[in-house]
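Listing S7. Sequence submitted for prediction.
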Amino acid sequence: MRVAGGSEKGRRLKGAVTSNTRATTERVRAAIFNILDPNLYQGGRVLDLFSGTGSLGIEALSHGADWVDFVEWDRRQSAVITSNLESTGLTAKAKVHRLDVFQALQTLPGNYDLALMDPPYKMGNLDNLMEQVSARSGLIIEGGVVITGHSKREELKEAYGELRLTSHRQYGDNVVDFYVYGPGADKT
């Protein structure tokens, strides 16, 4: 697995060490950052939930984000993220939080320009997660984007509170939905 683009393009990343972790493919990561407006996150703060290998957050850093908070519950996968940050030289721009995602939503400081999440497909009930992301005041800045990867077998709603679906992309079994936070927002 490699960083798909940006300043660290081509840099090798360690993969998943647990069977519960499914890393976001290089193709999907490249597509996400080709779709996103760089002005949205460059120089900004990013939240990577269900971080796994850290590949999505590292991609954001490689493309110019100033800071990423990685959230990963599994101890071994957290160590993989730390190792990947060290090998890319991005450790000073990130923190790995070994927390449950729902706990992290309540305790992290917020004001994120971009939130990335690619939860395990078997987790199910993404509606509840999306509702909690939307409900946490100050988690995502107005006009900020939440990107959710999921199986094509699970369909998400057009809106969750202040989150509005702006783009729906499918890559094989992977679906990536882009939501903008705030009334009437339509950036991607």
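Caption to Listing S7: primary sequence and predicted structure tokens for the chain studied. Residues 131 and 160 are 6 Å apart (CA to CA). The mean pLDDT is 91.
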